Amino acid sequence: MNVAEAPDPELLRDPEAYARLLEHVREAVLQGVPGPRAPRSVVSDSWHRSLSARVDPDEGEAPFVYDTGDLAALREGHPLAPVLPVLRQMLVSIADDAEHVMIVTDADGLILWREGATGQLLRGDQVGLVEGTRWSEAAIGTNAMGTALATGEPVQIYSAEHLVRRYHTWTCAAAPVRDPETGVLLGSIDVSGPLRTVHPAMISLVTATAQLAEGQLRAQLAVRDEQLRRVNMPHLEALRGRPGALLSAGGRVLAAQACLLPSTVDVRRGGGTVALPDGRLATVEPLEEGYLLRLSSSGAAGRRSRLRLEYLSDGAHSTTVDGREVPLTLRHAEILTLLALHPNGLSAERLALQLYGETGNPVTVRAEIHRLRSQLGASVVQTRPYRLAADVDADFTRARTSLRSGSAADVVRVFRGPLLPESEAPAVREERETLTAQVRQVALNSDDPAVLWSFWETACGVDDFAVLDALLRTLPATDPRRAAVSAHRARLA
C-alpha cells in the first residue's frame, strides 16, 4: 500500500488561498480552457472517471441507499466489523480533536459506520455524509473514499479537488482495506473534515490504520486456519500417506502431505476434479468447512517431468528435461541450482538477493524466470513462490547426500568438478566453496589413493599441495600414477 503524495506546502501555509486556486483549476478543466496549473494526476484521472459516469459537478449528491434498519444487518455481516474497535481506538479521538469524522465504507463506497464529534456529524448530515449513503466515484464523483476504492491506493482530496461543488469546504483522507486471504477490497477507512484543519500526517495515519486493520484480519485468519486444520486433520490422515491436502474455503493450502502444491488451488463450489498449474489432476471433496484434496495417482496429466542437472564439472553444464537436453545460459543454470537447493521455493526478492547480492532487482528475476519457463515449460518451474515442480536429479544434491551418509568413494564418484565454476552469483559461489571444501576434506581423511586420485583429477584438486602430498604418501612406489603426481608436484614447487 503506497502512501499518497504529501499536501502542497501552499495548502498548509494558506488553506483558503489554496482552495481558491483549486477552484480555478477545476473550472478551467470543466470549461476546457487553460488553467493556472494542472490538477494532480490522481485527481485528473478521477474527474475523468466521474464525468464518464455522468456525475453532475454542480448538483450531484450522494445517493441514500439503505435506511438504519437495513444497515444493521449489513454491518453485522461485514468483514470489517471485527476490526471496528481497532479503528475507533486509532482514529476517533484524533478525529474529534481535529474536528474530523471517521468513516468506514464497504467495497462499493457505502458508508457503514460514521463516528466523531457531534458538531462535525451534524455538518456531515448537511451534505449527505451519513450512514447508508454511497460514496463511490460513480455515485458522487471524486472523493477520498471513492477514489481510494477505485485506485486501490491511499489518497487525500482537498477542497475543489472534489468534483461536486457542495464538498469544496471539506478535505478527506482515505485508504483501502483488503481481505488478507483473497486480496479483494473490503472497503475503505476515511477521515473527513473542514479544509482549515488539514494536516500533512492525516494520510499517513489513515494508511497506517488500514494496515493495522489488515494485520488484525490476518491474525484472525491464522486462528481460523489453525482451528480448521485441527478439526479436519483426521481427513488428511485417513489418506494414509497418499498425496493430498487440506484447503480453506477459498482454496488456500492449509496442510499437505506427500506432494508439492501451489499456495492456492482454484476450487469450485461443491468440489470436483481440478487441474493444477503443472497439469496434475486432483479431486476436491467438500468438508463441513473447507476441502480435502486428493491427488490423482495415474494418468498422463498427472505425470511430473524429470529434470536432470549435471553442474559439477570442469567443463560445460548440462540440463535435460525428460531426457531432452536443453541448452541454458549460465544465469538460468544458477536459478535452477538455487531452486533445487530450496525445494519449498523462493520469492523474487530472495532469489534476486541470492543471484545478485544487495543490488539484485526482483523485476530482473521475474524476466529471467519468464524466459526460463518458456524453455523448460510451466510444469517444471512454477511461481508464487518460484519453485521446481519436476522430479529433480541434481549431481550437487546427490553429492550433498553422499557427504551425509555415503562412503568417501561415493562422494568423489559424484563430484566431478566445482559447481558452475564460472558463476559469480553469491549463493552459488558460497555453495560451490562449501561443497568443494567438504569433498576435499573427505578425500584427505580417507587416505585412500583411489579417492584422492579422483579428487586430484578435478580442477579443485589438481594443484592442491595437501592432496598431492597425500597421494605421494599413499600410492605404492610401483604405481605408475605416483610418477605423474611427483612430476606435477615438482612443477608447482
Automatic annotation (TrEMBL):
A biological process term (GO) from this entry: phosphorelay signal transduction system
Keyword vocabulary terms for this entry: DNA-binding, Transcription, Transcription regulation
Protein name, UniProt field: GAF domain-containing protein
Gene Ontology MF: a single term: DNA binding
Pfam family, one: GAF
Domain of life: Bacteria
Provenance organism: Amycolatopsis iheyensis
Domain OmpR/PhoB-type: 323-388
